[in-house]
Design a protein that fits this description.
Two copies of one chain form a homodimer.
Chain A (H helix, E strand, L loop, with lengths): L1 E5 L7 E4 L9 E10 L2 H7 L10 E2 L3 E6 L5 E4 L2 E2 L13 E2 L11 E5 L3 E3 L6 H5 L2 H14 L7 E4 L5 H12 L3 E6 L2 H9 L4 E4 L5 H9 L2 E6 L6 H7 E9 L7 E4 L1 H6 L3 E4 L5 H13 L6 E6 L3 H10 L5 E5 L4
Parallel strand pairs in A: 11-12, 11-14, 12-13, 14-15, 15-17, 18-19
Antiparallel strand pairs in A: 1-2, 1-4, 3-5, 3-9, 3-19, 5-6, 6-10, 7-8
Amino acid sequence: MKALVLNEVRQLLVLQERPSPKAGKRQVIVKLKAAALNRRDYWITQGLYPGIRCPVVLGSDGAGTADFREKEVIINPGYNWGHRQEVQSGDFKILGMPDDGTFAEEIVVPQEQLFARPKHLSFEQAAALPLAGLTAYRALFKQGRLQSSQTVVITGIGGGVACIAIQLAIAAGATVIVTSSSQAKINKAMAMGATAGFLYTAEGYASQVNAEFGPIHLIVDGAGGDGYSQLIDMACPGGTIVNYGATAGIAEKLELRKVFFRQLHLVGSTMGSPADFSAMLDMVGKHEIQPVVDEVFALSDGNKALEKMKVSSQFGKIVLRVSDR
Amino acid sequence: MKALVLNEVRQLLVLQERPSPKAGKRQVIVKLKAAALNRRDYWITQGLYPGIRCPVVLGSDGAGTADFREKEVIINPGYNWGHRQEVQSGDFKILGMPDDGTFAEEIVVPQEQLFARPKHLSFEQAAALPLAGLTAYRALFKQGRLQSSQTVVITGIGGGVACIAIQLAIAAGATVIVTSSSQAKINKAMAMGATAGFLYTAEGYASQVNAEFGPIHLIVDGAGGDGYSQLIDMACPGGTIVNYGATAGIAEKLELRKVFFRQLHLVGSTMGSPADFSAMLDMVGKHEIQPVVDEVFALSDGNKALEKMKVSSQFGKIVLRVSDR
């Protein structure tokens, strides 16, 4: 079978022939139709991830067919979450490094990681869902406890998690405000149902958010960095900021006086539990949410797809078509 | 009646004669037996508090007699909390600036702020309880959701909130670990039932806490500052750090990667609601907790008491004896 292999960090991926995987006990072979990229894949190619082992097939997201359940499946990429809903166990891992991932024609996965493909989604849309949908669901509803009457600010629209977060939050009945450095991305988010969008590059944008929408109940952020202090200013008393990433790095200067006097909750979130995955699928099915696919590349064009992820020009998920059969 | 008056910031308090307060509708006059200091009083004398108005009588904590309820009362110093349990309203204020406080022979307070003095406490012990007990209770149980099976680290032992927090946490069945820059204070905390104490001035103390006690469920901190990042390292996956103060200032760097990957909860807490105050009193009564009184000064020695607060040499609350009658 063919697979996109990372033979060494900071090298291009190579499409090469590999032996088909074999299913062990309680494992299933999935013939992949589509896969999707996550920023994690890019970090690994750059050597910026702990414990990298090569050669390896990257890819956490995939949809395809299997001789199991309803035959058409998507994969929950979070393995060994453990028994505590509030946090993953020490054995938790994400599919695609160290285990071979979804940028391949075939993959072997434990049975319990397989879920039926949502019927309203194509394989490409389905492949766009798992890791981003899981991360967004947990950040919004488990860690952020979003209520339908509330207003949520979702930062850095364009990334896969932020895009599906807009859709899930709207489905939950919340008012959604987005931020981006790109007016074009803001316009796309508003076309999806966001109520307003703000350029975070504009001076004093946080006060403008508050002037127009009042203090904010929940902020879901994947960036951190210098902009984090403005999120603290934007949050309402008793409000919550959930971080699922820190692409802009460390937050300098945390003004704890604001945090304690306004009784804020600064909460970390990463991926999600099997219960989160299942709840996310239910919501996506019930509301017929379609993940935004930015562009579909052939598996053989995996390096072009990674290049797009590198410059963050996408809006939604970058998908790889693995097989049309 | 006599009162300790702050006529101007950065001046000494002056014991002077003032007209007795008059009770309006649904208000009660309390003849104070004892009052207690909080760091807030010191900040105000130094001009380091928003909205200072002089002349004013400071003091948030007091116990005395009133022609109301069970005659012997303590005062809940948090006014106008509002209807949301999760955070105070915009009208919230603490007794003692702008309203005249407890460093006086008499004070007028709204009826609903009065609670029966816990029967096992002297007036001086009772005066030591309100603001510190309220703050510690909310930080531990509402914001920190401490469970009896858990381990809690309480930082900066010696302060009034930290001292009563030790007692409340032990009463709840938790394992208590303390930190201080003073071995003498650590020894006192262990005599009160803390399981262990660590000098936060010692290199690598956080790893030592983890080596001996494993990762920590809950950390209750009133300092912030440079030491904050070590609290993040100390917390267990899914753990919580509650801040009720930032005497050491801004936390310079917040490593969001650690926060999101370990799904930490960084939670602010300030004072508490009337429900918190009532629950705190129940717990103090049920377990016959006696707040630690560091030293009792005469009302006329209020400036000496403030001086002790300034250098933080106390262990427990600094109390003013207002009247023996």
